[in-house]
Write a structure and sequence with these properties.
There is one protein chain. The chain is built from 20 helices and 13 strands. It is of the alpha/beta class. The strands form three sheets. A nine-stranded parallel β-sheet has the order 2-3-4-5-6-7-8-1-9. A two-stranded antiparallel ribbon has the order 10-11. A two-stranded antiparallel sheet has the order 12-13. β10 and β11 form a beta hairpin. The chain is globular and about 65 Å long. The protein starts with a strand and ends with a strand.
């Protein structure tokens, strides 16, 4: 009897984030969801993470409506899972306790079954309250240990001993959970390290615990990681499907099925999680329906390729394409190799927090600023970005190792902040010092003559930025659409006269105009790109 390996279909959440920056219209993929459910897939990633913010900020859609539609489409029995970032929940900054509780209550209300909950710093203090809220709401809590590979020459964290210690801290803290996941957003962890980590985790958790791995194929390492995790004791994996698998996304379902042939393991294909090869033709048809639904979307080339540079500078699949797009549109893409190199320094000197949201953004933003400063002849660390600087100072939690004291000093001076443990002695979790968010959200809704209900409170609470509140904009009907989709009705672009410095566009036909929102350091720009052929 082969050992059954459970899988979650991540195509419609992480697949979207990793390839399209999470910007996909509901109408374009719900037929593929229906077909996947009809093919016997019973566990889907259905929201959370960037699929919360992007719907309001880029798709003009309500994430709660999307979750309701997802549940209606797959029926009452399927497991629908979302992603949360510890005390940040689905925001990019720490949230107050009342908003953390409201997150769990709202996602339960709107049909979700399980919430995967991680902290990028592996600070268990950031998982205790959020995990309790998820469990108390009647949801399954999947607690996470985050993984990555360190840059060359680094040590002190992100080895099997470190991951075992984090898991022990979770157990010792009494964090309630239904399952445990090891999450590698960059797909860089060495497979041998993965194997040893899962052996230790299985020994700690016993034979009956649900133990899962999540990774990406960004650097061509994901499938091997999964095999190593299974051999070490994992009984659950995350897989995506054509055309949303591989590259910056998860390993492909059929590739994994093929890799397990002739082993003691088999994927749980088919209804009710049984091992049934007869499900394959149905899943192939569901894949084809997804291809049809997404045929008008622009797939960035870097989302579809192997990028081995990230082994040395762990760039998550869900962030890579958004950042390369930003660099192209700001005409700085020629600096990309240098940014990756400088990102390695940011990781090396930053305390080894895992490169996953929001820390991956902190690493990249600081590396980008450092690179641009250097290209202008300025000191590399001329400007400390707020996110990276606050992380160094402890305002996201405690990093696995102490960050470089020289950088901590720069961050403190430039941001005008003392290190968290000095400013707030005895406080272990940043959420403890944040003023309640619900009263503020209620007032904001009232001031804008908008309905005051739990959904709207949560929307405006999580979408507050320095430049305004994206939730208020959405609720008032000011809805920006920035989806990477070809527009057959786009106006014809006027051709420019040919010169030595331009391309002759005479006779070329416009294939579509796409609007992209490019963001960096709290600022954003709308960029329109017209493709000619």
């Amino acid at each position: 009897m082969k050992k059954k390996i459970l899988f979650q279909d991540t195509s419609f959440r992480d697949g979207f984030q990793s390839i399209f920056g999470a910007r996909v219209f509901m109408k374009d993929f719900m037929p593929a969801v229906e077909a996947a459910a009809a093919a016997g897939i019973t566990h889907f990633e259905a929201g959370g993470g960037a699929r919360f913010q992007a719907l309001y900020q880029n798709c003009g859609e309500d994430a709660f409506d999307m979750m309701d539609t997802f549940r209606k489409t797959v029926g009452p029995k399927a497991r629908l899972q979302t992603l949360a970032r510890g005390i940040n929940v689905v925001a990019l900054a720490p949230q107050p306790y009342d908003m953390i509780k409201l997150h769990a209550d709202m996602f339960k209300k709107h049909g979700m079954t399980r919430i995967r909950n991680f902290d990028a710093l592996n600070d268990v203090n950031n998982l205790i309250y959020s995990g309790k809220c998820i469990t108390d709401a009647g949801l399954e809590h999947e607690v996470v240990v985050t993984m990555m590979e360190l840059p060359l020459g680094c040590s002190g964290a992100h080895d099997p001993e470190f991951y075992e210690k984090v898991l022990r801290n979770i157990l010792d803290a009494g964090v309630p959970f239904a399952s445990v996941c090891f999450k590698d957003a960059s797909g860089t962890a060495n497979p041998k390290k993965v194997y040893e980590t899962f052996k230790r985790a299985r020994k700690l958790l016993g034979d009956k615990a649900e133990l899962r791995i999540h990774s990406h194929e960004t650097c061509g390492n994901g499938l091997y990681q999964y095999i190593s995790a299974i051999e070490g004791g994992a009984n659950g994996i995350d897989l995506a499907r054509k055309p949303l698998s591989g590259g910056t996304s998860q390993p492909d379902l059929f590739a994994m099925y093929h890799a397990l042939k002739g082993t003691d393991y088999a994927l749980a294909l088919g209804e009710d999680g049984i091992v049934d090869d007869n499900a394959i033709p149905k899943i192939m048809e569901a894949n084809n329906i997804a291809v049809e639904g997404l045929k008008d979307y622009n797939f960035p080339p870097e989302a579809l390729q192997t990028t081995t540079d990230v082994i040395f500078s762990p760039m998550p699949g869900g962030a890579l394409t958004a950042n390369t797009l930003m660099m192209r549109e700001t005409k700085t893409f020629h600096l990309y190799p240098e940014v990756i190199k400088n990102m390695s320094e940011c990781v090396r000197r930053g305390g080894f927090a895992s490169s996953v949201t929001p820390v991956s953004q902190f690493y990249f933003q600081q590396a980008y600023v450092n690179t641009v400063n250097k290209s202008k002849g300025l000191d590399t660390w001329h400007k400390m970005t707020e996110g990276y600087g606050k992380m160094l100072l402890g305002y996201q939690g405690k990093t696995p190792c102490e960050p470089d004291p020289a950088l901590v000093k720069i961050a403190s001076e430039q941001l005008g902040l003392k290190p968290f443990h000095e400013a707030h002695p005895g406080i272990k979790c940043a959420a403890e010092i944040i003023e309640p968010g619900i009263p503020q959200a209620k007032k904001l809704l009232q001031d804008n003559n908008l309905p005051v209900n739990d959904e709207n409170i949560f929307i405006v609470g999580c979408l507050q930025t320095k430049g305004g509140n994206k939730g208020i904009d959405f609720l008032k009907g000011n809805r920006h659409i920035g989806v990477p989709k070809k527009d057959p009705n786009a106006p014809v672009a006027a051709a420019k006269p040919a010169t030595a410095a331009t391309v002759n566009t005479a006779g070329m036909k416009p294939q579509g105009t796409n609007t992209y929102r490019v963001g960096l350091n709290g600022q954003s720009w709308d960029v329109q790109v017209t493709t000619l052929k």
